[in-house]
Structure prediction request, 283 residues.
Amino acid sequence: MLVFTGISVLTVIFDRWLLQKSAGSVEQGYYSLGYQIGAVSLLVTSAMIPLVFREYAVSLGKGDHAEFKRVLQRYSPMLYSLSAYFGCFLAVEAKSVIIIFGGNAYLQALFPVSLMCLYPIHQILGQLNASVFFAAHKTDIYRNIGVGCSVAGLLMSLLLLAPREYGGLAMGADGLAIKMVVIQLISVNIQFFYIHKTWDVKFWRFIIHQIVIATMFLSAAHACSYVSHAWTGSLPIFVPFFVSGLIYTTVTIILTMLFPSIFSVSRAEVFDLMNRLRKVLAH
Prediction:
């Protein structure tokens, strides 16, 4: 893990240095803004990681692979969907978020901000997968996957960020955002594949779930944003943003009641949660 941590730190430093050298401070600021806004969606989901790690450690420590698979197949889709709920909405409403928090001067950061809002969706899966490898004492496998993806990421950074005279595409913050999302996506699913081979977890079930959930939330966010801005577009920017979020949340609740598997729960659990919320609000 010391080797992997060192390589990861050097990779981050190299990416930022190359971005600075090839594109300058403005592009550096665009990327940083996108990274910080995207991190908002991790505030809720990352708090649950220690609890899930404990469940993994207990089940694997007892050699209870059936319980481990149950916990994995419940919480990985659940936290992915929860992260996608926030990330997809922020990605679609990136323009409003930029204007509210950064002003019109940062509108050229729209693409990297939108893309980096999607980055934490798979980052949460990476944290969950890391918990599996740590609990199973397979840090060497985790290191090997991480180092391999870091090397691939360095090559991708050179291609996307290097100046054109050196054979690169000189894409600036856009290129670094693309690299971060693509490498995270690849890394997470390589980890999932190893988990599938080791513990006979359904790999394609996770792949299909990722595609369906991301498509569903992005589509819902786009539709809600269109309706909101059509109704309230002449008002200050925070108003359509708030209305869009309210409609989006309402649609998500309805979809969860109709298809509770979105968040890896049963319909009975959904109604039980709603009854508890109703009692809390009544008091």
Notes: The chain has a mean pLDDT of 91. The two ends are 49 Å apart (CA to CA). The CA atoms of residues 35 and 94 lie 12 Å apart.
